[in-house]
């Protein structure tokens, strides 16, 4: 039969390697301890086979039977090691049993386990530490002291402590004694971590209350340290000293109605900023980190809330229970945090028990196997193809998302609390008599290092406050004004979110733009002095992409290129590198975009900031746009449906525009542009029709009676025109139907204008309304006017967007065939005359338009006119697009070379026009200096090379047109 020590070793062998020292201590010394107990007839008073019920009494017995100090240290250490192993073994056995018996929510089981494990561990360690204090402390020379536990009870890697003493005794000797105790604990127990005291006072291990006061008098300092202070619980020592410490030090961080709340405010601003920073961290694809991913943020926010509601509990679960009572409106949020807290804590506890005491787990085969061990203990099983370790990791990421959803709700509550209690609150009122700009920065000194100013920034969002701030700043002498601006940078440079928010807000108002420029210039000059600036920029961008987008939009090319150079600094973490890449893509689009294009993508990026992450993922961006479109029908009102549909248009405009900027073929981008713009018009018509139907309380039947044709560039399936030529035809003389249809089109026009595109109804000039009767068009085209070819061209190039095929067929039979195809020679003659006339204009006029992509000789206008001639000549019914060239060749083979040349010219000119509009501006007149973007996209070495190619292409088109006209 195996002896007890062998069985204990086997039962605890699954624990991590760091438990070896406890097993070795038991193996070396337990038999001696038992022998001594038997010699003293105290063997029955000590639990050996299972955990004790009274650790304090048993440790006193163990200490009392020893012969000397060395033996006493060895035996109490052995007792600790034994019961530390037994406690963990018993806890795991009970957990396994409870998990196996449970078929429902296991989180209450996990919570019970963590509370029990934490309490038992704390009781054992407290009594062990008391024995060491009895051995080492010289009560005559020692100052009065209290040892505080400032970490989680269940943390077994070390014990976070703070030691407060009253300075009356021999401090140096006392600190040497604490060092000896810490070294002794390291041999056979858990080591001390003096995280609190090492930041306060002159001694390494302890600090006095007066030293705390001195260190915390003028500024807030480290908020994590304050968190630990607020979590302090007595391990051993003077309760009187601890109560004094609570009153004089800890108490200042709680809210006191009508009292001095500077420390409370400073702590809230600091810890809320810390929480914001934690939530801004990207979720790593390569590892998990229990503290950084979840525990720090959870404990920080509940600690912050406890100071607001004056809750003196220190255990996280206890605090949450009290917060549910004190703050019932947020009961759901606290319950959600409790679930995530429990999950993270038990996952961490078991991983550190069975594997390693590291906080970070880097995914590899060994780590996943270790996670599997933990998952099995927690009740996870392989289900189908989903393995237990995958299942627990899914829950891990779900809890990360949970806290990132819930915590901001509580942060908003803290913001509202600060809004009314802040020392800055009086400055936010119009009747404040001081200088806001100067007084704020003076008061701010106490709060240096804090990074949560959302309540203050909210005031800057009102133009009235901004005007007052700028006015007060400009009242200062020039030198002082410059110094104040520098102080704003220096004060906020460790809080990039607040600094960039302030700069961006100032840049949005005309009244404050000069201040924006001054502050931004200083920011640009000194941004590289900010520690880890690339990482911090990435964090802000990851959490607030819309803010960064708005800030970037306020900067000109030199500043944006400067930021790109900063972002080139090497980043090793994959998660940060991905965010930096997205930020570089955003800056690149801003750099290469004209105001014409920015109008669209700024609208969509401001409204849907998450889409910023998709700018370099066109397939996902298209899925995102499709999602917006699918949501149109779910909107409750016609107004909201039209707004959502407009969002779809903007998103697709942005997506296709990015493809053009990326060098996609013009045939591809024009086809995609036509597809989404037709979809937009078709859906807009349906929404506006339903809107009008509600006014009529019925629908007037317009099937086969009404049709909407695209004309101009949209008819030719060409992208990025700044107007939309529309022909609306009605095959009915009923005035009610005419009025009904006209109302629909009027509503459509209003919405199209909202997209920044001007709807152009050419025939409105003739008939005074948007909707034209089919017979009116017949009468108009029957006129024998020299310029009637213009209207005929509109009809010949028209492309059906809304309406039935029956209407389209009748349109062809009544309009196109009799007035154009049957009179093609007359039409072609007029078109040729127009081309000849344009080509024979005087040299002075030609010089004015030679840079015009559309109107110059051999430009797009000429090409499009010859395309219409070809369509009329061969009676081609397909739209006037690049496919028309192939159809023409099939009718007359000797046109092949000239049509090929013309097709190439058309593709080049259209690509140039598209890229120029998106990079320089919505103009057809080329400015050579503005060709940078187009040259880069189209693969030319310089602007001049592209301009030369433009001139050669026009000449080539001119020659091809002349040849075609001769052959036709």
> Beta-strand level of the residues, as a percent range?
5-15%
Mean pLDDT: 90
Largest sheet: 5 strands, mixed
Task: Give the helix level as a range of percent.
Answer: 55-70%
Structural class: mainly alpha
Low-pLDDT residue intervals, each spanning 5 or more residues: none
Query: How far is the first residue's CA from the last residue's CA?
Result: 110 Å
Number of helical regions: 42
Overall 3D geometry? elongated
Written overview of the protein:
With 968 residues, the chain is mostly helical. Helices cover 65% and strands 5% of the residues. The strands form three sheets. Strands 7, 8, 9, 10 and 11 form a five-stranded mixed sheet that branches. Helix 4 (69-101) crosses helix 6, helix 14 (365-377) crosses helix 15 and helix 40 runs antiparallel to helix 42. The longest helix is centred in the middle third of the chain and has 34 residues, at 388-421.
Task: Name some characteristics of this structure.
968 residues, mainly alpha, five-stranded mixed β-sheet, four-stranded mixed β-sheet, elongated
Brief overview:
This protein is mostly helical and 968 residues long. Helices cover 65% and strands 5% of the residues.
Topology diagram in text:
Layout: H1 4-12, H2 20-39, H3 55-64, H4 69-101, H5 107-136, E1 145-149, E2 159-165, H6 171-188, E3 192-193, H7 209-216, H8 223-230, E4 233-237, H9 239-248, H10 262-280, E5 287-289, H11 290-308, H12 316-326, H13 331-354, E6 360-362, H14 365-377, H15 388-421, H16 436-444, H17 454-460, H18 463-475, H19 478-492, H20 496-508, H21 513-526, H22 533-543, H23 545-553, H24 557-567, H25 574-592, H26 595-607, H27 618-630, H28 638-661, H29 666-696, E7 706-711, H30 712-715, E8 723-730, H31 735-754, E9 758-760, H32 764-767, E10 771-773, H33 774-781, H34 788-797, E11 799-802, H35 805-821, H36 824-839, H37 843-849, H38 860-874, H39 883-891, H40 896-919, H41 932-938, H42 943-967
Helix pairs in contact: 1-2, 2-4, 3-4, 3-5, 4-5, 4-6, 5-6, 5-13, 8-10, 10-11, 10-15, 11-12, 11-13, 11-15, 12-13, 13-14, 13-15, 14-15, 16-19, 19-21, 20-21, 20-23, 22-23, 22-25, 23-26, 24-25, 26-28, 27-28, 28-29, 29-31, 33-35, 36-38, 38-39, 39-40, 40-41, 40-42
